[in-house]
Automatic annotation (TrEMBL):
This is Isochorismatase hydrolase. It comes from the Bacteria. Residues 10-177 form the Isochorismatase-like domain. SUPFAM superfamilies: Isochorismatase-like hydrolases (SSF52499). GO terms for molecular function: hydrolase activity. CDD domains: cysteine_hydrolases. Gene3D superfamilies: Isochorismatase-like. The keyword Hydrolase applies. Pfam families: Isochorismatase. Keywords: Hydrolase. Coiled coil: none annotated. PANTHER family: ISOCHORISMATASE FAMILY PROTEIN YECD, PEROXYUREIDOACRYLATE/UREIDOACRYLATE AMIDOHYDROLASE-RELATED.
Length: 187
């Protein structure tokens, strides 16, 4: 399903566009993802809509077959990309799990702001974005995915999320489509 509308109170949620994550090899150029996410953030701010910037500063405990970090990361790893131009009005969320809702104040903040829909962007498509989207869907939020403002460490995982998972959770569109929809619904 293509992007059809944005709710009157839609928030942008940008996942893990931080120094340590952006430096990793990704399926699509991370610089382009950051540029698209920054354009979305600027537009949401201009329209007086909430912008949530999420970083990850640890990992959930537990066993897994693939090695993954579970402790705290070095400070520079968690620094948000300067292109996002963080503002005092932005809501910052630091997570220690894949999804941005678990053990954070994200749901409370969105409810307090009257948000009924979120637009998701960031890295990584199949982990942080998909986990956040699944939880948002279960909580009853409408979801839009800015598909060119996200990427993954693995192309096959990215493609699976975009083609099989996201259409079941919400609507997809490009950054340009989201920006046009913002202008159209806010005119």
């Amino acid at each position: 399903m293509a992007l059809t509308t944005l709710d009157a109170k839609t928030a942008l949620v940008v996942i893990d566009l931080q120094q340590g994550i952006v430096a990793m090899p990704t399926a699509h150029p991370a610089a382009q993802v950051v540029t698209h996410a920054a354009a979305l953030a600027e537009a949401f701010r201009r329209h007086g809509l909430p912008v949530v910037l999420v970083n990850v500063a640890g990992g959930a405990p537990g066993r897994a077959e693939q090695a993954r970090p579970t402790g705290n990361f070095p400070p520079e790893f968690t620094d948000l990309m300067p292109e996002l131009n963080p503002q005092a009005s932005d809501h910052l969320v630091t997570k220690r799990t894949w999804g941005a809702f678990t053990n954070t104040d994200l749901e409370a903040y969105l409810r307090e702001q009257g948000v009924t829909q979120i637009v998701l962007a960031g890295i990584s498509t199949s982990i942080g974005i998909e986990s956040t989207a699944r939880f948002a869907h279960e909580l009853g939020f409408n979801i839009a995915f800015a598909v060119d403002a996200m990427t993954d460490l693995h192309l096959d995982a990215h493609t699976n999320s975009l083609t099989r998972i996201f259409p079941r959770l919400g609507e997809t569109g490009t950054t340009q489509q989201v920006l046009a929809m913002l202008e159209q619904t806010r005119a």
